[in-house]
Specification:
The protein is of the alpha+beta class. It contains 12 helices and 16 strands. The longest helix has 19 residues.
């Protein structure tokens, strides 16, 4: 069966409210939350085997009802997710403001216990049939309920669709308003929800709102240039290259052995430095170089690598355990197409490390003040954006019938995701998911998989160095 032909029969959506009374109040969103580029929904997809392991569906407890009941319970602790967004000052729910989709006004959360959207559906599909699809495709959208809203503000912060499969398996799709929580925050909620489904009466990690810890300094002080927001000249008609109808999804997996090999290549390329390198640093640098080389941009084009960094422990005071809001910022590595393409992998890794190292408490506080400008958004011209999902422990979200067989985003985008994976039985593998122009996908994937070419280029450089020394 083709997934494009898949009939998905969905029931009418219902609202799942907290099982106990919750506070009624309006909550402040920080400047890190209330960024224009975060006004979208994070969409996860999980695939679970049949509850009893054989697909007969004869267990006493219906898994969908278990999830629905547990959702109602966990929303008592995470009651902001049962509320609704509105623009600041919209005290009477003025429709004129709510429908202003282009407005830059500050958002806030009205905690009214209205509830999360919950949809139950059925798909004539088995888990084995689903696994034939190695990467997200557009028709996966059928597995997630689309809320009829004029704009992002009108979409409830939490939307869930649970789809039963013909074999008895379950596909769970969950959407979070990104302005309420980041990847770590949403993962924290998902684990808490799963705990309640497994019979817990209280969540093991108490959720903390804590946005007062991220208020701007008064008087405001912007002490850094914040290059992630600075515009660069576009020499390549960049936006046109990444039109939605011109891009296709790419998925390339790296085993732990391949990641180790990348680290060795970086070390040999910079033998004078006794630095250590993380898997993320070397893989991000490798992906950036491959993407730039495949895109064939003008050599003078200024380029950026933007990647999310958790700053919960970088701030002073640190954000408390349980904080589930946006506790990340974008680090920015900068260079030109010529420099990145003609330099070694170690050069790119150093740029990544330098960008990470710049994220001090003072830098982050300066950024929070910078974001008082509600029109500010990262400049994406000739920029690659990477988000690391491989460290979110999404593969451990167990509702009581086992860990998910598949975890990932509902769709592929021009934002690059590092996903947890198991490549041909290799544990701790990372799947790099990115949509690229259709015209370059073969070249991009060739560069991504050509780790041996990097090793060969180092040997040539070593030989050249020996000749020079002689």
């Amino acid at each position: 069966m083709l997934l494009s032909d898949l009939p998905v029969t969905a029931q009418a959506p219902v609202l799942v409210s907290p099982s106990q009374p919750t506070p009624c109040k309006v909550l402040y969103l920080s400047n890190l939350d209330d960024q224009l580029f975060l006004r979208f929904t994070i969409k996860y997809i999980f695939v679970y085997r049949p509850r009893n392991g054989n697909g007969n569906g004869n267990e006493d407890e219906d898994p969908v009802e278990v999830m629905r009941s547990a959702l109602s319970k966990v929303l008592v602790s995470y009651y902001p997710l049962a509320g609704r967004l509105r623009r600041s000052g919209d005290l009477q729910n003025n429709n004129k403001n709510k429908n202003n989709s282009n407005g830059h006004g500050r958002l806030e959360v009205v905690c009214n216990g209205e509830g999360a959207v919950f949809v139950e559906a059925y798909a004539d599909l088995t888990i084995d049939e689903f696994h034939r699809f190695q990467k997200p495709c557009k028709t996966w959208k059928k597995l997630f309920y689309k809320v009829d809203a004029d704009n992002f503000v009108g979409i409830p912060p939490l939307v869930v669709q649970v789809t039963r499969l013909r074999c008895g398996g379950i596909v769970l799709c969950v959407g979070f308003s990104h302005c309420l929580c980041d990847g770590l925050g949403s993962s924290q909620f998902l684990h808490a929800w799963a705990e309640m489904a497994r019979g817990a009466t209280v969540v093991s990690v108490r959720p903390v709102w804590g946005r007062h810890l991220l208020r701007p300094r008064c008087p405001p002080r912007v002490e850094y240039s914040h290059p992630e927001f600075k515009q660069v000249q576009d020499f390549c008609n960049f936006k046109e290259r990444l039109r939605p109808d011109a891009i296709v999804s790419s998925s390339v997996c790296f085993t732990s052995a391949q990641l180790l090999e990348l680290k060795k290549i970086v070390s040999r390329g910079d033998s004078a430095c006794k630095c250590s390198y993380t898997s993320f640093e070397v893989l991000a640098a490798h992906v950036w170089r491959c993407w730039i080389r495949a895109m064939d941009l003008p050599s003078v084009q200024a380029i950026k690598l933007l990647f999310s960094v958790n700053v919960r422990k970088r701030l002073q005071p640190q954000l408390p355990e349980g904080f589930f809001g946006n506790g990340f910022v974008l680090a920015c590595a900068e260079t030109t197409v010529k420099e990145l393409s003609e330099s070694s992998l170690s050069y790119a890794v150093k740029l990544v490390q330098k960008a990470k190292g710049s994220l001090t408490n003072e830098y982050i506080r300066s950024l929070i003040n910078y974001l008082d400008d509600k029109s500010a958004r990262p400049d994406l011209v000739a920029s690659l954006v990477i988000s690391q999902w491989s460290r979110l422990d999404l593969t451990e979200v167990d509702f009581g019938w086992g860990k998910p067989l598949h975890v990932g985003p509902l769709g592929s985008d021009i934002y690059c995701l590092f996903l947890p994976s198991c490549c041909d039985g290799h544990l701790d593998a990372v799947n790099v998911l990115l949509s690229v122009p259709r015209t370059i996908i073969d070249k991009y994937e060739y560069y991504m998989r050509s780790i041996s070419d990097l090793r060969s280029s180092l040997l040539v450089e070593d030989q050249d160095q020996i000749i020079l020394e002689l």
